[in-house]
Amino acid sequence: xxxxxxxxxxxxxxxxxxxxxxxxxxxxxxxxxxxxxxxxxxxxxxxxxxxxxxxxxxxxxxxxxxxxxxxxxxxxxxxxxxxxxxxxxxxxxxxxxxxxxxxxxxxxxxxxxxxxxxxxxxxxxxxxxxxxxxxxxxxxxxxxxxxxxxxxxxxxxxxxxxxxxxxxxxxxxxxxxxxxxxxxxxxxxxxxxxxxxxxxxxxxxxxxx
Length: 209
Prior knowledge:
Number of strands: 2
Strand order of the largest sheet: 1-2
Distance between the termini: 36 Å
Structural class: mainly alpha
Largest sheet: 2 strands, antiparallel
Number of helices: 10
Shape: flat
Strand content: under 5%
Radius of gyration: 22 Å
C-alpha cells in the first residue's frame, strides 16, 4: 500500500525532497500539498504510526461530512431520531469503499468540497472558498466538479451578464483543470521504463530435513 509506505518514508525524508518529486510509483504533484504536508507533520509527531494515519484520514473524511449533513438536517422537519438515521446512512458509505480502492485523497477532497458548497449556499462565502481551496489542494480532480459548478452558476445567473464573459469564465476554469491535470509522463518515469531491470540474485532455498 503506497500510502503507508510513503507515510513512513516521510519520517526520514525532508518534505522539500518529497513534494514535486518522483517517488515510486508516483509523481508527487506540487499542486496537491495538503494531504502530503499533513502526513509529513503527523508521521514526525507519531514516529510513523500507521494507526494514527488511519484515525487522521477517517476524521478528515467523516468530520466535514458529519458537519455538513447535520447542518442540512437541522433545517429539516425530521425528528432527531430520523435525522440520526439519515446521518448514519450517509456516513456508512463514506470510507469503506474508497479506502479499499486506494482513493484516500479523493475522498478527503470530496468531503471538503461538499462542505464548501454547503457553506457557500448558506452565505458563508469566504469559509466556503477556503474549504474549496483545501479540496483542490488535496486532489486536483476537485477542480472538475468545481469548474462545472462555476460554469453552471454563470449561465444561470440573472440577466445582464455578457455572453463573452461567460465563455471566458468557462474557458478559464477548464484551462486551469487542463493545466493541473497529469497530462505528461515525468522524465524520471520514462527513464525507469527504458532502463533494464536490475539483476536479482536468487539463492537456492535450503531443504529442511
